[in-house]
Amino acid sequence: MTKSNVHGLSRRRFVAGAAAGIGLAGFSRPVRAQAAPRVVVIGGGFGGATAAKYVRMFDPAIQVTMIDPARSHITCPFSNYVLAGFRTMDSITHSFINLRANGVTQVLGTATVIDPVAKTVRLAVGDPIPYDRLIVSPGIDLRFDAVPGYDEAASEKIPHAWKAGAQTVLLRQQLESMRDGGVVLMSVPGNPYRCPPGPYERAAMIAHYLKAAKPRSKILILDSKEMFSKQPLFQDGWKALYGDMIEWVPASKDGIVKRVDAGAMTLHTDFAQHKGDVINFIAPQWAGAIARSAGLTNQTGFCPVDPVTFESTVHRGIHVIGDSSIAGALPKSGFAANSEGKVCAMAVVNLLKGKPAEAPTYVNTCYSLVGPDYGISVAGVYKPGPQGIVEVPNSGGTSPREAPLDARKAEAVFAEGWYRSITADIYG
Ligand SMILES: Cc1cc2nc3c(=O)[nH]c(=O)nc-3n(C[C@H](O)[C@H](O)[C@H](O)COP(=O)(O)OP(=O)(O)OC[C@H]3O[C@@H](n4cnc5c(N)ncnc54)[C@H](O)[C@@H]3O)c2cc1C
After folding, report:
1. Which candidate in 2, 13, 214, 426 could, as Cys together with 180 as Cys, close a disulfide (CB 3.0–4.6 Å)?
2. Parallel, antiparallel or unpaired: strands 129-130 and 362-371
3. Ligand 1 and 73: CB distance under 6 A
4. What's the pLDDT tens digit per position in 299-356?
5. Phi-psi region of 20 (alpha: psi -120 to 50; beta: other; left: phi over 0)
6. Does domain 148-284 fall into CATH 3.40.50.360?
7. Does any ligand 1 atom lie closer than 6 A to the CB of residue 141?
8. Please, are residues 367 and 411 in contact by the beta-carbon 8 Å criterion?
9. C-alpha 251 – ligand 1 centre gap (Å)
10. Candidates 3.20.20.110, 3.40.190.10, 3.50.50.60, 3.30.70.100; correct CATH number of 3-139+288-359?
């Protein structure tokens, strides 16, 4: 190993990782580093950062390299509260710096090519990065080919805000600039998509802001589905807190948007045209670009995986976790991605030692706020079965429909605790 080509990384990108304050520890003893198995992780979000951290925790002898274009991750969870105005972007931004304590090296950049034969990952510049096992967790991409009129350029005027960051800020600014009495249109895609209850929590959070700042305004949700996660709980909460401010239109009542006219700020359905002062278009989704270009997806646009190890059924030696994967009954949630990241990390450590993977259990809880003091939740435990991952009967459920306000308030506190503990688990 030469100094300029440590672990297959060019000096420039390695220094970029070091400058980010990440992971010099793995390189301090070249002899051991040379012999150590190499795990590369694409993506530093809920799935990827969890897997990177836990591989190192389960076996500190393994070299772990995490590739992500940013030095920190802005979480989608709690980004709806930025729209409501009671959370800041800073409070949902988590630096990768503490992953260093576990010896994870970050390569700053975007993975562009996976070579499953040579077992390398390429970025736009620099040498290929070799791996013994690769974990891919790039999240979702919005499908800019799915609905005529909605492409990347249109998203600058009509944000999806389904990846937290600049899009979240844009949507918040648009809400702040809107006149009182304006109409906020939301379009929600069919399944599967990231965070099944997310759009309905978002509607509530926008209503929370409008009720205080622009009380004559309306929110119209055009939905491509007939029903949605925690529906009775959301609809009870909307009514209790916001009266008639939120209207929901299911697919069968002409809720499916067929065309977007960004210039005229109009959504076209089969039988109507809806003009919005602000439009939040949550487009259909598929696996992140690197998973698609590597051929890891099937006709659904997502990646089929082994339900025990999350190893791709297309390319052995590559694991796909988080929203990009097809995880059976597990929802596309941050909690599920975190759970998958830990299970996958353990499986990878075992497989590198020639041991079989252990039978896993997965967990998920999704809290949603209807108001800052009004929380609801759905929880479940999941196991691999012959047909993929299934929910364990009677393992979870939703908040009771009839519950005193104290119970809703307690769930809002639990939601806050959940966010603190999961982000500390991943990035702390
Ligand atoms: C509004 C909203 C609210 C939500 N609320 C909740 C909630 O309350 N609870 C919950 O459990 N879940 C929630 N979710 C869902 C949660 O955000 C996702 O399920 C979770 O982030 C999925 O994790 P992931 O690792 O698959 O993707 P992400 O967390 O999105 O991470 C993907 C990472 O990969 C990186 N990346 C992508 N491509 C490349 C590449 N080629 N090279 C290198 N890096 C790359 C990206 O930069 C990113 O950092 C919410 C989602 C939304 C949109």
Report:
1. 214
2. unpaired
3. yes
4. 999 999 999 999 999 999 999 999 999 999 999 999 999 999 999 999 999 999 999 9
5. alpha
6. no
7. no
8. yes
9. 27
10. 3.50.50.60
